[in-house]
Design goal:
Blueprint (H helix, E strand, L loop, with lengths): L2 E6 L6 H10 L2 E6 L2 H8 L7 H19 L5 E4 L3 H13 L3 E16 L2 E15 L1
Parallel strand pairs: 1-2, 1-3, 3-4
Antiparallel strand pairs: 4-5
Helix pairs in contact: 3-4
């Protein structure tokens, strides 16, 4: 039996990430947040305290996860640090597996006259459990 991977972050999975999830996490399905919840997660107001984030953003996301998950499902959580910490605690308390993605950064420097341009490329390495 495979698991679902809930995607609580601000990007689309890369082909390497999908392959890793299928192969190493026994994932069968990827579950993106519905657009209205994704908009909330992607736009957490920096002026809010954690209580406001919990009430206005995390409670609806937690409800979505509870209604659509089963024990052992995986949850990729990346974003606002405080919100991430709260969702990691939530996931662990509901027998879900909270994860984050690790990358390797490759930097290329190009000289353009008196200027140096740096280009950083990030390559997925693996998912790591919190």
């Amino acid at each position: 039996m495979g698991y679902k991977l809930f995607l609580i972050f601000n990007h689309q999975l890369t082909p390497d990430q999908k392959e890793d999830a299928y192969k190493n996490l026994n994932v069968e399905r990827f579950i993106y947040l519905p657009p209205e919840l994704q908009k909330l997660w992607s736009n957490i107001p920096p002026q809010w305290d954690l209580k406001e984030i919990e009430e206005n953003i995390l409670i609806p996301i937690k409800k979505f996860i509870i209604e659509n998950s089963q024990e052992g499902d995986r949850v990729l959580i990346q974003g606002d640090f405080g919100a991430v910490c709260k969702l990691v605690q939530f996931a662990k308390g509901h027998n879900l597996v909270p994860l984050y993605a690790t990358t390797k950064r490759e930097v290329e420097e190009k000289r353009e006259g008196d200027k140096i341009k740096k280009i950083s490329t990030f390559k997925h390495i693996r998912f790591r459990e919190f």
